[in-house]
Amino acid sequence: MLRISQSAVLVSVRMCRHGNPASLRPSLISISQCGSFRAVSTQGSGWYESVADSAPVHQAEQLLLSVQQLTGLPWWSSIICTTLALRCSITLPLAIYQAHIIAKIEALQKEIAAFAQQLRFEISVRAKEKNWTEQTCRFHFKKNLRRIVSELYVRENCHPFKASVLIWVQLPMWVCVSLALRNLSLGLGNTDVSAGLAAGGALWFPDLTVPDSTWIMPVSLGIINLLITEIFALRQTESSKMQKYATHFIRGISVLMIPIAATVPSSMCVYWLSSSCVGLAHNLLLRSPGVRKLCRIPETRFDSQTPYRDIAAAFIHKYSRAGAHSGK
User: Fold this and answer.
1) DSSP result, 241-257
2) Cα dist. 131→57, 123, 141, 145, 306 in Å?
3) CA pair distance 198, 256, nearest whole angstrom
4) How far apart are CA 295 and CA 40, in angstroms?
5) Which of 181, 171, 175 lies closest to 94, judged by CA?
6) pLDDT tens, 175-190?
7) pTM
8) What are the pLDDT digits (tens) for 47-64?
9) Helix H segments across 236-306?
10) Phi/psi of residue 26, each to 5°?
């Protein structure tokens, strides 16, 4: 028997597509004080439903509602403003911190190379004294070099893992806001909000609760993400195999996001596209010598006084050469 809590609770029974009574699944729909409702599945819910009904996602919903009510802007522009605020207040400082760490790591490469050369000489001397095999020499060289590099990272306070802090913050934030918009668009948080989103679009996407049938935003999203990936790849003149594999993987994800974005509500697509545009702007901003100097980011051998001209030239050189090879 189902107990009724202090808050008003309705029990709804949903029948499956084939009308099989055995597959009926009860769900609880709690009525909030403001009269809105939220459906929470009590059994059979998977990890996706659990994440979509989690506290961080609900907080993201409240943030989106608060910004829209505070500014009074249409929903499409309110989503863009929220995205801009989150990216500039949270991810931009972390991107600057990441640039600091990467610059310190790059500055250490010359010192690491010198230590490696000296260590190689010492290992060769010790190998002659103790008749070490080549495999033993390689083992001691790698072991001691790892220790030296680790000590250098500690000295400069620039462990490479710190450079990944941005992604560990940005990705959960992106997921929470995306699921919050999905809940609001489907009317799972507030039917009035869903109705507002249905009339809160603009131009070719007047209804933010349905996908963008023109594919303009999904394709634009893929192009922006690929552009960010290529700009990052152009900076890595000496890429390792792992870095090349990671770049190809991100390219694949960027392309895969196009059909995915074409199947989600336009509100999510507006957020994804605006977030990627802000990310591209931050990426280019942190290439500026003036901005890097203002943020006290250490100079590296990759820095340029004309970064944007260099990026354009690198793009033209790379793809003109690719076109020449494909034409042969």
Assistant:
1) HHHHHHHHHHHHHHHHH
2) 63, 11, 15, 21, 54
3) 26
4) 46
5) 171
6) 999 999 998 888 775 6
7) 0.75
8) 877 887 788 888 998 999
9) 241-261, 266-285, 289-294
10) -75, 145
